[in-house]
Amino acid sequence: MSEAEAKPAGRAIPAPAVTVESKPFWDAAAEGRFLIKRCTACGKAHWYPRAICPFCASDDTVWEESPGEGVIYTFSIMRRSPTGPYVIGYVTLDEGPAVLTNFVDCDPDSLKIGQRVKVRFQPTEGGPPAPVFRPA
């Protein structure tokens, strides 16, 4: 891996705050499954998973397993880091929601807006693994 490549283990990711509302998501992440929420009232999928739909304010939401695939909407390469360059940005999931994430397992300079990506889970500092995305 060249110095210009994002190193998945090079930058520690803090443990997420697990709440009663988000616990099913983090439990699934520990099993390698990516969940999103879908509102059964309006039919829209949303991210970050929460009990109340951000589109219609209904509390009639359900967990749905997602393949965790989508396209890069935007990204930024962080070159000034003691652990080397890393990339953050948004992925638009095939189901519709946009996810703020880290991009891993890639040469940052080869990423393109519209590029297909897929989720994988990266260990955190003492918590459940966090979703990150890599080129598909």
UniProtKB/TrEMBL annotation:
Q: Which InterPro entries match?
A: ChsH2_C, ChsH2_Znr, NA-bd_OB-fold, Thioester_dehydratase-like
Organism of derivation: Phenylobacterium parvum
The protein here is known as: DNA-binding protein
One MF annotation (Gene Ontology) recorded for this entry: DNA binding
Keyword annotations: DNA-binding
Tell me the ranges covered by the ChsH2 rubredoxin-like zinc ribbon domain, including all copies: 26-60
| Pfam assignment, any one | OB_ChsH2_C
Q: Which residues form the ChsH2 C-terminal OB-fold domain?
A: 63-122
